[in-house]
Amino acid sequence: MKKQNFFQSIFVLTILLFFLGCQSNTSVSTLRLGHSLDTQHPVHKAMVIFGEELEKQSQGKLKVNIYPSGQLGGERECLELLQIGSLDITKVSAAVLENFIPEYKVFSVPYMFRDKAHTFSVFDSEIGESLLLKGEKFRLRGLTFYDAGSRSFYMKEAPIKSPADLKGKKIRVQKSNMAVAMVNDLGGSPTPISWGELYTALQQGVVDGAENNPPSFYTSKHYEVCKYYSLDEHTAVPDVLLIGTDTWSRLNNQQKDWVRKAVKVSTIAQRKLWADSEKASLEAVKKAGVQVVYPDKKPFEEQTKGILKMFDGNEEMKSLITSIKNQQ
């Protein structure tokens, strides 16, 4: 009897493995998307549109389950889950990807882009497409660049009107060598702290200020602690929507086409959502008592030009920077 039960169990297990194998090879009915943003953030809303459009394109054959607000961990954790195949899609800041893909440092070079039109032109060009595919050897395939606006300084005690105002100030930065170098060049003391811990760090005086875009400043509620926001707009670091290469390889050509079309729709929508959110966020923080300052950007740009020397001897990066500067 025991022998019969044993063979029955082996038979059932074999059948289950067979069907699971077939399912993974022929289709992926539900993709799991995890990220660390608040549900009111315009980038989250764009990912919702991506999911809706994907379901529409596939007539319900391919769907997305979204896990927002750090339910599955921060950006680093979600990247690791993507690499091992436990998560299908995530969104991270391009600055975080510098640790995997050196070319992404270009987004953290201060004043790399002339204006918003130039920024979008680069994202949508062959330059942008090439950068999105640079992470494939790390099991990370870029799908699109989402607009994350321009990053500016916000402080607890006083506004930043010139680089001199940053001298000796502890500024939270992302875990990015370029961000650290920029704050150092401006005279500040760069302090890498995770996004989820920043509110408390500001409250407790671990740092004097931070830098980010208007929607993130607002939705994070950092304006409750920092009452000075100086729009020096030093960098335009995009968010990157990524899919794991394991997941991508399991999708058939039709499914990949659905994903591409849904991504394109969400990217167009996200740019409008971002512009609206940026305007509303600035109005909201002003009403909450934040003093918004518009400093002269030239002194900041001049004082950070030395960062380009980091690429001396790196012809590939110098060529990339030149291509971006020349992009119309």
Helix content: 40-55%
On the 0 to 100 scale, the average pLDDT is 91
Query: Which term fits the overall shape?
Result: globular
Number of strands: 11
Gap between N and C termini: 77 Å
- Helix segment count? 12
Largest sheet: 5 strands, mixed
What structural class do helix, strand and pairing data support? alpha/beta
**Radius of gyration, Cα only, in angstroms?**
22 Å
> Which percent range describes the beta-strand content?
15-25%
Strand arrangement within the widest β-sheet reads: 2-1-3-10-4
Helix and strand sequence: HEHEHEHHEEEHEHEHEEHHEHH
Uncertain regions spanning at least 5 consecutive residues: 1-26
The quaternary organization reads as single chain
The gist of it:
The chain has 328 residues and is an alpha/beta fold. It has twelve helices and eleven strands. Strand 6, helix 6 and strand 7 form a beta-alpha-beta unit.
